[in-house]
Amino acid sequence: MSYALERFSEEARAAIAATGMVPAEMIELATPKPNIPADLAFPVFRAARELGVAPPRLAADLAAAISPGPGSLIGAVEAAGPFLNFSMHPERIAEAVLGEIAAHGAAYGHHADGAGKRVVVDYSAPNIARRMHVGHIRSTIIGQTLVNIFRALGYQVIGDNHLGDWGTQFGTVIASIMRYGRPQAEGEAAMEQLEALYARYNNEMKERSELEDEARRWSLALEQGDPEARAIWQWCVDLTLKAAQKNYDRLGIVFDHAYGESFYEAMLPEVIAETLHSEAAYRDADGSVVAELDKLPKFIIQRSDGGTVYMTRDIATVKFRISEFQPSKIVYVVDGRQELHFRQLFAIVRAMGYAEGVELVHIPFGIVTTPDGQPLSTRKGNMVYLESLLDEAVARARAVVERKNPELDEAEKAAVAEAVGVGAVIYNDLYQDPRRNISLDWERMLATEGNSATYLQYSYARCRSILRRVEEERGGAVAPANLALLTHPAEQRLLKHLARLPEALREAGARYAPFVIAEWCYTTAREFGVFFEQCPVLKADTPELRAARLALVEATGTALKGGLALLGIKAPERM
Ligand code: ARG
Q1: Which domain covers residue 35, as residue numbers?
Q2: How much distance in Å is there from the Cα of 100 to the middle of ligand 1?
Q3: For residues 283 and 117, what is the distance between their CA atoms, to the nearest angstrom?
Q4: Is there a single domain that holds both residue 289 and residue 243?
Q5: Could you tell me if residue 116 is inside a domain?
Q6: What is the whole-number distance in angstroms between the Cα of residue 162 and the centre of ligand 1?
Q7: Whole-number pLDDT of residue 380
Q8: Considering the domain boundaries, does residue 489 fall inside one?
Q9: Mean pLDDT for the chain?
Q10: Are residues 60 and 205 both part of a single domain?
Q11: Between β-strands 329-333 and 359-363, what pairing exists: parallel, antiparallel or unpaired?
Q12: What is the pLDDT of residue 479?
């Protein structure tokens, strides 16, 4: 499947080649500078040098030799100094782009590039018996968007929630529950109580060493499958997942698997043996198994007491994923502070020969700060947890809805506030490079103007409100649209921008960069705003022009909603 912009540049390339004046491998096309009134340029310098002619001469000869055929998306070809400039045919591009959007609907801009290939995305990965804090929130949101993007690119995507459900700390969790009793609350409050029990136990342990032995005994019991230990552990897992699921539902997060670290426990002895056998790792003097690869700091795979670590389970996870799914890549969406961990992980699985031909990618992300740039931390007591964050966002969004549209009924107000609040949280994570820190600045996040989800949602709702008015007026009967009338500069700019969604999606996938989609959405909303200001729709001069503009409004709504859907943001019909 190829979209209008691709066809336009293929046509330009073919037209240049057809002149026989420039060999195909010398045809490199570029986007003209913003002040140039053209859509595509062939800078002829290199070709001219190789052919031994003056660049302006070659450009002029090419311009004279090319005449776009009937039905071509190329409107004009002009030489401007050493450039050969191509402009789109205004009427045909309108027909092509609006036709594609109408035909593909919600899937407009999607591709089949990844057909037959699989991608595993490792994201969210909260820790059992802990609240989901900002680090996991970022992973959850960025990860789900990458899942959406790769699916839209045609890949078969396997989303796996690598739960932190194993490790010696569970000995302490179980011991604290045995000692103080199970928490009674639900959701985030229950997790908070579990955290408190854990902290209390740790404190008491400092004074009384028998508590330490107790925790160690539970840890061992759990590892050896003791039914009582297993039951308490399972209870913690269920409690945590139930609390998490509520948040996942609100955020539109869906996993294919949630194997979790515990799943790999049985594979660890074999994996450790393989690290030694492949000579990727060695046994240290104290009996531990360690690796030192690619000049990275030395790291542990098995402790001297025989215990395993996070890394051991990650090595097993790579092995399992590759044999189970045969992916072409595995993408880890994890806090930037684990960068070294992933460099070490990738180094060792490569050294072991596990990941032949599989691309391993770590997508790190920055921290979350207060509006004045202070990092959130548990220690400082200003940490933000997912459930409370979503609740606060929705409460604030509710105030915006009340102000903007007090006449909506109660159910709709609640639904819109949910979409706007959750959308604001998601967009705040996605509108810039994930490596950058984000701040929780509610004013900006919920602004009805500017680069916010709220503004984008308003733009969509505005499209829908125009279309609703037409439906109400005459039962939807609109004069047949003559799309060739959409030649106003604001219409053309909006159209050409809508035509860019397919390439924006490809770029977002290639760079693991949801912000490319966010920027496309933001520019769409802005161009739509300009169009709306300069081109009366319902009061257009003629019924034909009105119909054509309505078609453009409808296409803008469809494409914008599709862009927002990639980001996991809902677009209410009314705001
Ligand atoms: N549970 C871990 C944490 O909270 C994140 C796990 C990320 N995924 C992985 N395969 N290591 O830090």
Answers
A1: 4-88
A2: 41
A3: 38
A4: yes
A5: no
A6: 6
A7: 85
A8: yes
A9: 95
A10: no
A11: parallel
A12: 67
Alpha-carbon span 60 to 82, nearest angstrom = 9
DSSP-derived letter for residue 257 is B
**Separation between Cα atoms, residue 419 and residue 250, nearest integer Å:** 9
* Shared domain check, 454 and 360: no
Position 109 in a domain? no
pLDDT tens, residue by residue, 383-407 = 999 999 999 999 999 999 999 999 9
Q: Ligand 1 atom 8: the closest Cα is on which residue?
A: 162
Number of domains in the chain: 3
Q: Are 26 and 133 within one domain?
A: no
Which atom of ligand 1 approaches the CA of 136 most closely?
A: 4
Asked if 336 and 419 sit in the same domain, the reply is no
Is the beta carbon of 127 within 6 A of some atom in ligand 1?
yes
Tokens, residue 401: 């809805």
Q: What is the CATH number of the domain that holds 352?
A: 3.40.50.620
Whether the CB of 62 sits within 6 Å of ligand 1: no
227 pLDDT above the threshold of 60: yes
Q: What does the block give as tokens for 545? A: 């022009």
Query: Pocket of ligand 1, candidates 334, 344, 363, 383: which has the most ligand atoms within 8 Å of its Cβ, to mutate?
Result: 334
Q: Measured from the CB, is residue 164 less than 6 Å from ligand 1?
A: yes
Helix (H, G, I), strand (E, B) or coil at 133: strand
- Do 270 and 138 belong to one domain? yes
* Residue 321 and residue 227 share a domain: yes
The residue to mutate among 121, 262, 320, 338, having the most atoms of ligand 1 within 8 angstroms of its beta carbon, is 338
In the reported structure, the alpha carbon of residue 341 is separated from the centroid of ligand 1 by a whole-number distance in angstroms of 10
Protein residue with its CA nearest to atom 5 in ligand 1: 125
DSSP per residue over 160-205, as a string?
A: E---B--STHHHHHHHHHHHH------HHHHHHHHHHHHHHHHHHH
Residue 45: half-sphere exposure toward Cβ, Cα within 13 Å = 2
Per the confidence metrics, is the pTM higher than 0.70?
yes
136: in domain: yes
